[in-house]
Specification:
The chain is of the alpha/beta class. The chain is built from nine helices and eleven strands. The strands form two sheets. Strands 2-1-3-4-7-8-9-10-11 form a nine-stranded mixed beta sheet, sandwiched between helices. It has a two-stranded antiparallel ribbon with strand order 5-6. The radius of gyration is 18 Å and the shape is globular. The N terminus is likely disordered.
C-alpha cells in the first residue's frame, strides 16, 4: 500500500471515473460517497453530467470532449501526487475514446505503483438490453476488462460479454472464469432460493454466493455502490468471503432502508452507518463442484 510517509496511518487514494448526476445516488455520486465515508480520499472524474438518472425521463446530457477528457486523465497520470493512488475504479463511460484514456491512466499508474488495483464495473446494460452503443460496450470488454484485477458486471453484462445466456449458476461461474480478471463479482446472479437474488464471487480458490431477498422496483445505483464498497473492503485487507459478506450486507441494508421510506433514489446519506456496520446479516455459501460447471 502506498501511503504518505508523513502519515503512515493514512488510507490510499482512489481514482473513480464514472457518471455524475445532480440529483440522485448513481455513478460517482454513489461510489465517491461510499469510499469517502469509509475513509478513502477520492479523485473523482465525471464521464458525463446529467441532472438525474435517464430512467427518470429525458435529461440534458453533457459529455466532455474526447480530447479534453483524455488530456485531463493524462494530467492525473503525470501529477506529482500519483503515488497517493492505490486503486482506480471505472464505471459508466460515455464514448469509446474514454476507454482508451482510462486504459492509459491505469497503465501509467501501474508503472508508478505495480500493486495498484484496477476495478472495472462494465456499465453497459441490464436485462432490458444494452443502454450504451455497442461500440462502447465492445471497447469496455476488449480494452478495459483485460486490464482489470476485479470486474463487477451484472448478470446481463456478463452474458453480453460471453455472448450467451446463462441458465444456471454453473454457466455464470464458467463465464466469470473465462472473462479474464482474477476476481469477478457478478451482481444480479441466480440465487438458490426463490424470491432472492445474489452476488456471486468467482476467483481462484473461492466460488462464493451471497443471497438476499428481492425488493420490488429497486432504485438505480446498486451496482455502482457494490463496486465501490467491495473495493474498499479489499483495500482494507478483508478476505474474499468477508469482503463479499460485508459488501452485500451493507448494500442490502441501504436498499432496504430506502425502500421502506419509499425513496426513488438510494438514500446512502441517510443510511451511511450501514457502510461501516450493516444492520442485516447475509449468509455466504460455497458453490459446490457440481455447480461450478467447467471446474468439475
Amino acid at each position: 500500500m502506498t501511503v504518505s510517509p508523513a502519515d503512515p496511518s493514512a488510507k490510499p487514494a482512489v481514482i473513480v471515473i464514472s457518471s455524475h448526476v445532480a440529483r440522485g445516488s448513481v455513478g460517482n455520486r454513489a461510489a465517491v460517497f461510499a469510499l469517502e465515508s469509509l475513509g478513502y480520499p477520492v479523485w473523482a472524474v465525471p464521464t458525463v453530467i446529467l441532472p438525474w438518472h435517464p430512467g427518470h425521463g429525458p435529461a440534458t446530457r453533457i459529455v466532455p470532449d474526447d480530447e479534453a477528457f483524455t488530456a485531463l486523465l493524462r494530467d492525473l497520470a503525470g501529477s506529482p501526487w500519483l503515488g497517493e493512488v492505490d486503486a482506480v475504479l471505472s464505471g459508466y463511460l460515455a464514448s469509446p475514446a474514454q476507454t482508451r484514456a482510462v486504459a492509459a491512466l491505469v497503465e501509467t499508474a501501474r508503472q508508478r505503483n505495480p500493486g495498484l488495483l484496477y476495478v472495472c464495473d462494465p456499465v453497459m446494460g441490464d436485462f432490458g438490453g444494452l443502454y450504451v452503443a455497442e461500440a462502447l460496450a465492445g471497447a469496455i470488454r476488449d480494452r478495459l476488462i483485460p486490464l482489470a484485477d476485479i470486474a463487477t458486471p451484472n448478470r446481463y453484462e456478463l452474458e453480453w460479454m460471453a455472448q450467451r445466456p446463462f441458465n444456471d449458476i454453473a454457466a455464470v461461474v464458467d463465464a466469470a472464469r473465462a472473462l479474464g480478471p482474477a476476481t469477478v463479482l457478478v451482481t444480479s446472479a441466480q440465487a438458490r432460493e426463490a424470491g432472492a437474488t445474489a452476488n456471486l464471487l468467482v476467483r481462484e480458490g473461492a466460488t462464493l454466493l451471497a443471497e438476499h431477498g428481492l425488493i420490488d422496483n429497486p432504485p438505480n445505483g446498486l451496482g455502482d455502490l457494490t463496486a465501490a464498497v467491495f473495493l474498499a473492503r479489499v483495500l482494507a485487507g478483508a478476505s474474499a468471503a468477508d469482503a463479499l459478506e460485508s459488501t452485500t450486507a451493507s448494500v442490502y441494508a441501504i436498499l432496504a432502508g430506502t425502500a421502506a421510506r419509499g425513496g426513488d433514489e438510494l438514500e446512502i446519506e441517510t443510511d451511511a452507518h450501514h457502510l461501516v456496520d450493516p444492520a442485516v446479516s447475509v449468509r455466504i455459501q460455497a458453490v459446490s463442484a457440481d455447480e461450478r460447471g467447467g471446474t468439475r
